[in-house]
Amino acid sequence: MLHKTIEKRLRETVTQVLPEANLNLVQVRPCPDPKFGDYQTTSLMMLAKERKMNPRQLATDVLAKLDLGDLCEKVEIAGAGFLNFRVKTAAFETSLEAANRGEHLFFEKTTQPHTAVIDFSSPNVAKPMHVGHIRSTILGDALARTLRLLGHQVITDNHIGDWGTQFGMLLVGWKNDLNREALAADPIAEMERIYKKVSSQCKEDPGVLEAARLELVQLQQGGVENREIWEEMIKLSQKQFNSIYGRLGIRFDHTLGESFYNPRLQKVVDELMARGIARESEGAKAIFSDGKLPPKEDPFLINRDGEWQPNPALVQKSDGGFNYTTTDLATLQYRTERWHPEAIVYVTDGRQQLHFQQLFGAFQRWHPEVKVKLAHVWFGSILREDGKPFKTRSGETVKLADLLDEAEERALKVVSEKSSELSEAQRKEIARIVGVGAVKYADLLPNRQSDYVFSWDKMLALNGTTAPYLQYAYARIRSIFRKGETGADREAKVLLRAPHELALAKHLMTFGITLEGVAEEYRPNFLCSYLYELADAFTGFYENCPVLKAEPADRASRLVLCELTARVLKQGLEVLGIDVLEQM
Ligand code: ARG
């Protein structure tokens, strides 16, 4: 990759000038303003600052020794001491020719592969998967795919909620009120019905509450009947999860739910107590602040009316039951022991921020010897067009399966209007890919930390920042090849003479930097925007530069530009979990 080659040479030169400098800090990035160059480095300013040197002087010294004559037309010192690189068109052409021969696709595998565990989706048993799980599922999958593409080892683990107090109520309902026929027809709906019923009875009738408690104790102590019912509930739920994952094209390496860690929980609490990390508090056991962090950064303190007060994390209730934090501590320990990952990434909504801050803080105190990067990749809510939380008209949470059905139905309408000549089976298959793709892209496009408004019309539009627009751009390129009854010649010379050709080529070149940004910051929205801009750059090129009707040399070169754009679109959408179509 060109910017990597420039970066490599820059690093070699920096070592000559500053032999002790940390070269990982020396980076080359696209120039924010193309007026000044194609690439830029601001790293020299940082190095100069660290050493109290004059940054422009350092830039001058480095530039004097830097040899980029073969790649760059011009390297300039600018501003307070950054370098701008203007790349020779010939260097872009060579890089595109290599890509066309299949030598690269504008990205490189990492030279420092690491193992990352990604905990995502993680729905709860006996409840329908709802829109709240969409973002986690889609985001987590896109991150897993991106990291894998870049050469990291990824372990995906679906931490399903298959244990906890809700099973007491479910068991009461299952034993007294289960409708077997309804269960056979729609197991989740029936389990949800009995759960809701018993849970509201519990609020009014202490007798039912007590019955639920007893059922739960029976389950926890390994009572055979309750155990069997519980297993059946999990099996039925897993079937529903699997059908959704199948539709979304998502798979997990492991599904180690909360129940898996159950046998380990008492030991976790005992150790935390013995080490003084947790202590008794009003009959329960909880982790308190150790006073080592500034209060502002301490997740175990909370500011109330200007005063810092304890904000403990419960690990064992007074009745002996365990908490979400306890399970997560056991899970974290298990993962570090089993897989020795460099990173563990949790994808959940933003309301769990405090939980993860406490979890990470507590784990570091418990296992200071374990070196692992812990990341909570959180996201905001999905809103209706009126700005309210995304619910059905009757106020229920929207079920994921219904949402996907509707996406496909709506996509079928769009496809049928546009391509009435296709058979129904073809249109349905296109609608499936377009519908699911539209939902995924709409979910990945916004900055994940902001709420976004769910709009069918916007996400299915054939124009704009949508999956259908990108899928259409891809299919349009394939149709050029069909029409020309040709492919791109592997040995073709690439000529970047028209401004739109050069602009498209430069955009292709930044695919790898974009992927790296996604992997570093866990933000697939960078790639969503990149692909949209790529499709736009392609449109600009296609409207201004004839392809099939061009002179032979231009025609061959432009077919390569078409081919490479198609490959990058396809690869880029694939890491977002979105399929493409040869024809739409
Ligand atoms: N089951 C939880 C929920 O639905 C998400 C679990 C996330 N993962 C974890 N290790 N806590 O909110």
Task: Characterise the protein shown here.
The protein has 584 residues and is of the alpha/beta class. It folds into four domains: 2-87, Arginyl tRNA synthetase N-terminal domain (Gyrase A, domain 2); 115-158 and 259-379, HUPs (Rossmann fold, 3-Layer(aba) Sandwich), CATH 3.40.50; 166-254, no CATH class; 400-575, Isoleucyl-tRNA Synthetase, Domain 1. 53% of the residues lie in helices and 11% in strands. It is built from 21 helices and 15 strands. The chain has helices spanning 2-17, 43-50, 55-65, 89-100, 131-149, 166-177, 180-185, 187-204, 206-220, 224-248, 265-274, 324-339, 353-366, 400-418, 424-444, 456-460, 467-484, 499-509, 511-521, 525-544, 552-575; strands spanning 29-30, 39-41, 72-78, 82-87, 115-119, 153-157, 278-281, 284-287, 301-304, 307-310, 313-316, 343-349, 373-379, 382-383, 452-453. A four-stranded antiparallel beta sheet has the order 1-2-4-3. A four-stranded parallel beta sheet has the order 6-5-12-13, sandwiched between helices. It has a three-stranded antiparallel beta sheet with strand order 7-8-11. Helix 4 (89-100) packs across helix 21 (552-575) and helix 9 packs across helix 10 (224-248). The longest helix has 25 residues, at 224-248. The model has no long low-confidence stretch (mean pLDDT 95). Arginine is lined by residues 119, 122-124, 159, 161, 328, 331, 346, 348.
